[in-house]
């Protein structure tokens, strides 16, 4: 049966109405797409973007951009926070670096036009700062010889910048500090502690290790945190972390020993290592500090220790020491700005 003219007219009319409604809905869809795009392109909080590289090539390029010295076979790189020499297993979370230094050595050597790169002395994984590499075995030996010369001449090899919770007591100190090991039946392993008193015999028996230190508080901001510069003869056994906790001013983001000091009735008080270990897997950072950093979880705050300077005695010249310097990473600088802490000029 043939369709009537009225049927065709109604069909055309309905089609126009549907087409019109689709045209009117398009701007809404476009607006929603723009909103999603804007949300996706919103910059991440600097503390949630500690590892900005997504590919190995990006990671290698980041290392190349942070080379602070490359002469006579010695290569110094400003290593990012959280990057290990080697990975022990699979990366399981956003708070870990996808790549290790070991994975980058071959492409890094190619980028720097050297045959190979050998790790010589790296700052520990959860600190940032100067790490030393060599393109020849003999340069590794020269670095070790410089360390020995530093010890003989009593030159402090390492200079760190640290952001601490509160202010160290005293605010400055120069001298020798002893660190030993604390044992208890409730502990499965010995814990490093600062020794207030110890004998020369314990040092001779290697029950206490001595460290030469020289620190000063550079900036106090509004009192929540402080910026401290400390140079030391050694950093073995997490000495700096343990020492700052001993000074009632643990390193901000120290998730190993940072709980040894707690706010109790408005006062910063030391608690036993046993209690500290059972509190939390992460440092219990005061709420007002987290609020200032615009975060809610202590776990994403990085350990605020940066190796800003290394001195190599007589490295290329018997009468001249080689001094290498590196600026703190963006996360460290952001934290300093949040608490009005003035960073020193690395060119000085």
Walk me through this protein's architecture:
The termini are far apart. This protein has helices at residues 5-41, 56-65, 101-111, 137-153, 200-204, 239-246, 273-279, 287-293, 330-338, and strands at 67-71, 74-79, 118-121, 128-134, 158-165, 172-182, 191-195, 209-219, 225-232, 261-264, 267-270, 305-317, 320-325. The relative contact order is 0.13. The protein has two domains: 46-156, Alpha-Beta Plaits, CATH 3.30.70; 159-300, no CATH class. Strands 1, 2, 3, 4, 5, 6, 7, 8, 9, 12 and 13 form an eleven-stranded mixed β-sheet that branches. With 348 residues, it is an alpha+beta fold. Helix 2 (56-65) packs across helix 3. Helix content is 32%, strand content 26%. The protein has nine helices and 13 strands. InterPro entries: PsdUridine_synth_cat_dom_sf, PsdUridine_synth_RsuA/RluA, RluA_PseudoU_synthase. Keywords: Isomerase.
